[in-house]
Structure formats: C-alpha cells, structure tokens
Amino acid sequence: MSVQEMTYLFVGITFLLYITIAIKSRASSTSDFYIAGAHVPPLANGLATAADWMSAASFISMAGIISFMGRDGSVYLMGWTGGYVLLAMLIAPYLRDFGKFTVPDFIGERYYSQTARIVALLCAVFISFTYVAGQMRGVGVVFSRFLEVDINIGVLIGMTIVFFYAVLGGMKGITYTQVAQYCVLIFAFMVPAIFISLLMTGNVIPHIGFGAELNPEYGGGYLLDRLDGLNQELGFAAYTESIRSKLDVFFITAALMFGTAGLPHVIIRFFTVPSVRAARKSALYAIFFIAILYTTAPTISAFARANLINTVSNVEYSAMPEWFKTWEATNLISFEDKNNDGIIQYLADPQDNELTVDRDIIVLANPEIAQLPNWVVALVAAGGLAAALSTAAGLLLVISSAISHDLLKSNLMPNISEKKELLSARIAIFFAVCIAGYFGINPPGFVAEVVAFAFGLASSSFFPAIVLGIFYKRMNKEGAISGMLVGIIFTASYIIYYTFINPAADNADGWWLGISPEGVGTLGTLLNFVTAFVVCHFTAAPPQEVQAMVEDIRVPG
Amino acid sequence: MKHTEKDSPGYWQENIRLVKILLGIWFVVSFLLGIIFVDVLDNFRFAGFKLGFWISQQGAIFIYVFLIYFYLKAMDKLDDKYKLNDEE
Questions:
Q1: ipTM, 2 dp
Q2: Chain B residues with CB-CB distance to A277 below 8 A
Q3: How far apart are CA A314 and CA A347, in angstroms?
Q4: How does pLDDT run across A177-214, given as a tens digit for each residue?
Q5: Options 1.20.1730.10, 3.30.1360.70, 1.10.510.10, 3.20.20.10; which CATH number does A3-302+357-446 get?
Q6: Do B64 and A81 lie within an 8 Å CB cutoff?
C-alpha cells in the first residue's frame, strides 16, 4: 500500500470512530450539553483534558520550534505544563465544588455582578476564537500535505466532523471523542520518537536516547554534544546554550503558566466530573498524559535536528533523498543555490545560507527523514488531525455555552425553557463552527501573534479573578472588575503596540524593560492583582451570602 | 448536606499550608533551577546531559507530575481526617 492509501485508511478509520462515539453519546439536557451531566470518570476526564489541551501547535509545531530554538525552547515545555500545577491546586477542585456550567458563571456569581459576567464572557469568546482559527488551519494543512486535498476542502471536512459530534453530543460527545483522540495522537507521536531513538542511539526509550551516545554511523559521541558542535560549525548558537535574556525567559514562562491555568476550555473540563476528589484525580491523570508528550517532544527536536543537518549539510543537491523533493513541493523546505556549486550550504548567516526549513517539518517529515515505514508516516497525519480536532471542539463548546448560557439564559432571556436553551446552544455551536472555518480558510496573517494574545488575556483576566475569588474572601466586585480591566487593557495595548503599531521596535532593545510581548501577560497578571487589592480596600466588602458561598467552595461536599 | 469552612475549623489552614509548600517547590524548580541558576547547574553533568538543560527540558515536568500526585494524596488524607467526602 502506498503512503497515501495508508493515510486515507488511517484517517478514515479514526473519523469513523469519532462519528460512532458521537452517535452513542447524544446530549438530552443542558447539563449533558455543557458539562456531560457531571458523570465523567476521572480517568476519562484526564485523557480528555490532555487531548483538549494539546492542540495542533503542541503536536505539529512545538518539537520543531524547540529544534530551532534549542535551550530557549524550554519556555514552552515548562510554561505549558507548569500551569497545571496552579490549575490543580488553586482552581480545579474549588470550581468543581462551585458546580455550575461555565467560567463566566463563576465570575458573575462570585462577584455578584452582570458586568463582571459580561467582561468574562467577552474574554472567553475572544480567547476561544483566537485559538480555534489556528486549529482549523492545522486541519487544512494536514489534509493538504498528506492527502493532496485542497487546503480549503480539508478545512471543510474537518468542520463537518467537529460539527457532527459537537452539535449532537455537546460536552458529552466531545469528552468521549477526546478520549479516543488522545489515544490516537499519543500513539502517533510516540511511535516515530521511539523509532528514531532506536535508529540513532539504540535506545528504545527516547528520554534515555536524548542523553545517550550516537551510533557510529551518526558520528558517535553524546547526542547533545554532537548537536552543540554541529550548530556551532554552521554558525548557530550551541544547542544547549541560551541566547534570550534570563528576565525575558522568566516572564514568558510565567505568562504561559498563568495563561494555561486561566484558559476557559481547560477549566470547564473539571466541571464534568462528579466530585471534588474526582477533580483532583483527573488533574493528576491529565498532567501525566500531557507529560508523556511534553517530555518526548524535546527528544524529537534534538534527534531530528542532528539527523537533518547530517542529511543535508554540505551534500550535493542531486543526492537528496526522495522526502526532500516531496516536501519541496509543499514549500516546507526550499533550496536556493546561491553560489551555483550544486551543494547545499545550510548556515546561520542569511547571506550565505541556501536552505530554508519550515519548523513544522520536524514532526511532519520526521518519519520520512528517518526512513521509517510508510504506516508510521500515515499515523502522523491521523495524530495531527486528532490533536487539532479535539482542541477545536473544546473551544467551540466554550463559545457556544458563553452565548446560550451566559448571554441568553443568565442575561437576556432568564425565562428561556431548558429545551430552547439546548436548541440555542446547538445553533450557537453551528455558527461558531462556521466562523472558525471561515478563519481557517482565510487565516488572518497574524495567527501566531494572536495566540500570544490569547495567553496574555487568559493570564491577565481570568487567573487573578478566579484565584482571588477563592482565596481572598474580602475581594469584591469593584476590585475584581477593575483588576480584570486594567490587566486586559495593559496587556492588549502592549501586544497591539509591538505587533501592529510599531513592529519595527519588536526586538530586545525596543521592548519596555526588555520584556517581549509574549511575556507581558505576567506583568498584566501582577497589575491585575495589585489593582484588585487597592480598589477592594476602598470599597465595601462583598455581601454576606457571597462570603458564605466562598466558605462553602473551600470545603468539599 | 453542605459543608462550609465553619463546620471544619483548621481544614482550610492545613490546606493553605500544604499548597504553600508545594508551590514553593514548583517555584524553585521552574524559576530558580530551570531559569535563574541554570548556568551554574550546567557545570554538573550526567550521561550526555548538562544538569540545568535537563531540568528545564525534562526534569521540571517530571517534578510537576510528582507535585500533583503528592497534592492528591495529601488532600485525600486531609479530607478523611476531617471526615469530608463528597463522593457518596
């Protein structure tokens, strides 16, 4: 069977699986639709949370980014996992005890204010749309690269699948498809990693191969030492050395952590379990399943980079293996023979460098570069789709529940019947899928920048408001709302200034205090905390029943 | 029956103490060992790894899993001590 036939087979089987699950788990009430009736067992929720969290970016791009950034890629590894420690200890168990449907629900009730609910609702919708555009694009990219389908048709196919199980099953359908999607994506991620580790170092476990010596045909010596040497020979910084300032690395890591803990599509997963104990347990399962991928990603980065340099650097273009030509056709890799010697010079200096490599190639083409069997290549396509679809579905649910529950039921139409609310949730998700698909087909040129936006907003708005709502009984609506507004406005202005108004200053010398727009969410978060404290001390304490509610959610039961 | 902070005096304080310790470790591992003092740690090596590099790309994530595991065990024990169980 050819690679392409095999890819069709794998993708077809996984899609069939998702649809079967969708038909078996239809939602019959709003509670089913928003939080899967709070009947999800902890293990299933852990698997679903991991799939929900790990997006097209984690699966397709992250290992590649680290491969080209080396040591500095650690910000993503620590940032996107360390946030779970905050989530597990400061947020998840308490919001489970609160026991409603959405994050704006909590903000609105805890701060006894419809204004607070609306601010939270707008943030949730904005963050989720920002994120979902990237997922739909990811679906299109996988389809076009592996199946030679037009990218737009790829997006449409992806939309149809998500639409099917999200509209039918709501959170219930999404949860059980995410469980299946985690299994697909982790298998697809681990198999090539194990193969390449075995091939290059003889170790089955990539984590050990990462620190092991290379087989003689790959140059011998420790992998990381060899990589440092190769990088330096070509004029790049050593792989294990940092080139970013420590301050900026500190701020970016913290911003990604606070953002992770404040992302609504991850938080609502903890509403779906039956008890506080189950919420804690599913947080442990989730970090465990996430850690499997996140500790493997940097090993792939290192193996693939060493392998790539070995294969292409100073080798004749005519002698390139077949994968080089295949991926050249998709523009993920391109060669421009500047000195006409027919040999590929891959160098750090842009003047003499002749090879342009897209970072996504590290995961997508890794199996071919390492000459792994065809079925492994096909598996990666199915895994990439699983990662993108599972995250997209979780985000779409946040958007739908913000509209039907927080906007209609809690604000505009408090007397709406449950049947009508369920119908409006389904209609909302339909429109959300269409808008997401539109952005997938016509991506705004700044997708990568707006993702920094999503994290910045989640960290500077939700994280402080939720944590203070639980741990600081005296916090009142004036404090929380002004904190959120100051945090958001500061963070958004900083990012907008450096991305759209004055992009020329977007470098280490131009940044205020040397903090990049990616890391500014940390400052926004701190400002939110400070503002909230100050304002709250000059205004009235929250009403007695709100304080009683805080006392209630602090204790299980 | 709804339990609140007032029904179980001491529970919340013990909870806070536990979280402070665990988040202290979280901070030290991520920000001190993984970022601020990473170059000092890089002077130590095991297998093919520089220690600081390994912590920031692998070790910290393993520690996070352990921290959450420890939190789960300690909180379940604390709940039992105060006879709080919302699973029935």
A1: 0.95
A2: 76, 79, 85-87
A3: 10
A4: 999 999 999 999 999 999 999 999 999 999 999 999 99
A5: 1.20.1730.10
A6: yes
